[in-house]
Amino acid sequence: MAKRVNSTINKYARQSFLGEDSQERISHAKVAIIGLGGGGSHIVQQLAHLGFQNYLLLDPDRIDETNLNRLVSGTIADVENGMYKVDIAKRTIVRLCSNSRVEAYVEKWHNKLDELKECDLIFGCVEGFIQRRDVEAFARRFLIPFIDIGMDVHSIDEEVPRIAGQIILSMPGYACMNCIRFLTDENLKKEASRYGDAGGNPQVVWSNGILASVAVGLAIDLITDWSKTLRTAVFLSYDGNDNTVKQDNRMQFINLNECSHYPLKEIGEPKFRPI
To answer: Domain 19-253 in CATH: superfamily?
Structure first.
């Protein structure tokens, strides 16, 4: 006879070092994941293992054959059936935590702003600088911590391809992506000039997994405060050739405790007045 799993205490006993009330905090937190491809699918899986129970999933795309090299839990049958990525993610969650509350939308994130406002934390697994800028601007206005991950592969002439990525924690009131020089006028303009170009960035499952794992670690620290050290902005750079994750060198020149781009007084719904 199959064994029935029904003990929350036993299920999460080995992560009790996170704090006496850590599981209660985890189970009550509501998290949004924007983008359920390579990185987002890893994040969903790990959050479900940890016991998160409240989710907002946003991705308009179906799985296709090119996703099978990196989309965790995606199968050949899912491709053949034209499954949406949010439905695959939801399936992963409920198989690990059957009482989870999952809002899954086949939508672009900016079509569900009211739902996003209700979240305690946003994970961004989007492509491009412009999308990152827009998600961060929204998160700042409603005082929601935003964790971004992304990777790319760069090839120069005959050199070995270089795998690079980042994990950024954007905390309201502290240095933003502009402050830390991840977003610049130059890279935003460059991306805008080639808007509509076909093709996506190269992706591999192990790099997405590393970035997602670090991002989930930051989220757990934010929610449980188990390390007593995470307070301000975080900008970590990933070198896939050396298999290292470390603080980006730009951070030593940044004042992490202030942000001139998103003043804390400019929060909530925007108000317009005639001029």
So the answer is: NAD(P)-binding Rossmann-like Domain (3.40.50.720)
Block residue for tokens 């005082």: 143
What is the residue-level pLDDT of the chain in tens, covering all 275 positions?
555 555 555 899 999 999 999 999 999 999 999 999 999 999 999 999 999 999 999 999 999 999 999 999 999 999 999 999 999 999 999 999 999 999 999 999 999 999 999 999 999 999 999 999 999 999 999 999 999 999 999 887 778 999 999 999 999 999 999 999 999 999 999 898 876 554 567 889 999 999 999 999 999 999 999 999 988 999 999 999 999 999 999 999 999 999 999 999 888 887 666 66
Whether the pTM exceeds 0.70: the reply is yes
Report strand pairing: 121-124 vs 146-154.
Answer: parallel
Q: How far apart are CA 176 and CA 41, in angstroms?
A: 25
Euclidean distance between CA atoms 80 and 161, whole angstroms: 33
Q: How far is CA 151 from the centre of its chain?
A: 12
Other C-beta atoms lying within 10 Å of the C-beta of residue 232: 15
Cα 116 from Cα 46, distance rounded (Å):
21
What is the C-alpha to C-alpha distance for residues 203 and 227, in angstroms, rounded to an integer? 31
Q: For residue 129, which amino acid is it?
A: F
Tell me the DSSP string of 201-261.
----HHHHHHHHHHHHHHHHHHHH--SS---S-EEEEEETTTTEEEE-GGGGGS-TT--SS
Tell me the residue type at 179. C
